[in-house]
Automatic annotation (TrEMBL):
Family membership noted in the UniProt record: Belongs to the class-I pyridine nucleotide-disulfide oxidoreductase family.
Miscellaneous remark of the record: The active site is a redox-active disulfide bond.
Official protein name in the record: Dihydrolipoyl dehydrogenase
Reported cofactor(s): FAD
Major enzyme class: oxidoreductase
Reaction equation(s) it catalyzes: N(6)-[(R)-dihydrolipoyl]-L-lysyl-[protein] + NAD(+) = N(6)-[(R)-lipoyl]-L-lysyl-[protein] + NADH + H(+)
Record-annotated FAD/NAD(P)-binding domain positions: 3-327
Gene: lpdA
Gene3D superfamilies, alphabetized: 3.30.390.30, FAD/NAD(P)-binding domain (3.50.50.60)
Keywords noted in UniProt: Disulfide bond, FAD, Flavoprotein, NAD, Oxidoreductase, Redox-active center
Length: 466
């Protein structure tokens, strides 16, 4: 069969690219090696982790917060098996939705491993070993990423696990050791902490979420510690050993001392790496970088003219929504349009509770770039909405250009900031000033008032409710 565009990989990057290309009149095929569509995000990433985060949040609230609202329930209990089953149902419905979208958009789905025969032909090898070759005028690589590990770790996938296994454990760990205080470590660490596990995070950098704004890391560390999570920053892991049902992690702390952590499970969450195994890039002549990423130019085009790559397999943040934008951009570019992505405006979100969200530059990035800026900060605690719900932790911080007042970055910790961050992204897309944001009437009482107040603090240094 011959197509205008073949997309390899059906994660958020791939399936969105396929839909957009089809909307623009292209004949499109998508190849997926797994039986369900949706890639890491829908099957073993964003969606299942949010399902477990939501279930564990309900339980945590019942145990810790119902009483202050005057609600008494006899000692709440949970059925972990049911939580995991619910998560599986959420995944099934969501991935089923992608199949529906493929059919609706007349996109041909091939189940099997896609590998290049040459620059225009891709072989699809099915589970039963049979294969067929399809032809594409243009090809989009959207094969995503897989969990990284450390060279001395043996991932037995039973007790020394990655996020994939952490989403389908048969029991709640007694003591979960988490290597890596990044997004996955803190989100999945939160799930099990809320369900009663001891959780110890071991982070190499001097702080958790090391690439986020320093104030955010500090506040998040404070609230997670308050929830009982043990956080060990500046600890370089040197060994991970399994001994029966125990896992022993050794690390070197800042003083050069060896520290031993013992738990019953160890989650390795030290980042992800691009996934190109078995793709046959060499047969098509596609170049990869030293770090194994597919090398692309500003149009996400590889060194081979008709082959493009998007999402986790190329440079940039490994985020579903970044991949989606790239999918749209490549599809539109191939249809002769002139699309554009502002990589500065891709929000970063962590679904702990309180949530964390950011867009634009951090203070450190502005300092490093020598940009004169002003900062306005407003505590969630000062909001009527936060007092009503009892979610008092966190803040909103707005960074604006000292001379022009243009908003350069917004950083948030607090209830529902995962959704709130989009106000900041919209403002920055339209190059709003802090004053613009401060002058917009915000509904009362809402968490969004913290954005208005922080913007006012950045603009004239005079928040109204602080
Ligand atoms: N909410 C979301 O958007 C979401 C959720 C999950 C995953 N993701 C994405 O998936 C990717 C992978 O997530 P992740 O949490 O594995 O990566 P990450 O990059 O967010 O965090 C990895 C952490 O591990 C630390 N680390 C690295 N080597 C270490 C070592 N030897 N010892 C101890 N710590 C070490 C790093 O300093 C970092 O803090 C990221 O790009 C992330 O953004 C996003």
């Amino acid at each position: 069969m011959k197509y205008d565009i073949i997309v390899i990989g059906s994660g958020p990057g791939g399936y969105i690219a396929a839909i957009r290309a089809s909307q623009l009149g292209k004949k499109v095929a998508i190849i997926e090696k797994y039986a369900t569509l949706g890639g890491t995000c829908l099957n073993v990433g964003c969606i299942p982790s949010k399902a477990l985060l939501d279930s564990s949040h309900h339980y945590y609230d019942a145990v810790h917060h119902f009483e202050e609202h005057g609600i008494s329930v006899e000692k709440p209990t949970f059925d972990f098996g049911k939580m995991v089953e619910r998560k599986a149902n959420v995944v099934e419905t969501t991935t089923g939705g992608i199949k529906y979208l493929m059919d609706k958009n007349n996109i041909t789905v091939y189940e099997g491993l896609g590998s290049f025969e040459d620059a225009t032909h891709v072989k699809v090898t099915k589970k039963d070993g049979s294969s067929e070759v399809i032809e594409g005028a243009d090809i989009i690589i959207a094969t995503g990423s897989k969990p990284s590990t450390l060279p001395f770790i043996t991932l037995d996938k039973e007790r020394v696990i990655t996020s994939t296994e952490a989403l389908k454990l048969k029991e709640v760990p007694k003591h979960l050791l988490v290597i890596g205080g990044g997004v996955i470590g803190l989100e999945l660490g939160s799930v099990y902490k809320r369900l009663g596990a001891d959780v110890t995070v071991i982070e190499y950098a001097p702080k958790i979420t090391p690439t986020m704004d320093a104030d955010v890391s500090k506040e998040l560390t404070k609230v997670l510690k308050k929830q009982g999570m043990k956080i060990n920053a500046s600890h370089g892991v040197t060994s991970v050993e399994r001994n029966g049902d125990e896992v022993i992690v050794k690390a070197t702390n800042k003083k050069g001392e060896e520290v031993t952590f013992t738990g019953d499970y160890c989650l390795v969450a030290v980042g992800r790496k691009p996934y190109t195994e078995g793709l046959g890039l060499e047969k098509a002549g596609v170049k990869v970088t030293e770090r194994g990423m597919v090398d692309v130019n500003d149009h996400l085009q590889t060194n081979i003219k008709n082959i493009y790559a998007i999402g986790d397999v190329v440079k940039g943040a490994m985020l579903a929504h970044k991949a989606e934008e790239e999918g749209v951009v490549v599809a539109e570019y191939l249809a002769g349009e002139k699309p554009h992505i502002d990589y500065n405006l891709i929000p970063g979100i962590i679904y702990t509770w309180p949530e964390v969200a950011a867009v634009g530059k951090t203070e450190q990035e502005l300092k490093d770039a020598g940009v004169a800026y002003k900062a306005g900060k407003f505590s969630m605690r000062a909001l009527g909405r936060s007092r009503a719900s009892g979610d008092l932790d966190g803040f909103v911080k707005v960074l604006a250009d000292k001379n022009t007042d243009e908003i350069l970055g917004v950083h948030m910790v607090g209830a529902r900031v995962a959704d709130l961050i989009m106000e900041a992204a919209v403002a920055m897309e339209y190059r709003a000033s802090a004053e613009d944001l401060a002058r917009i009437c915000h509904g009362h009482p809402t968490y969004s008032e913290a954005v208005k107040e922080a913007a006012k603090a950045a603009w004239d240094g005079k928040p109204l409710n602080a």
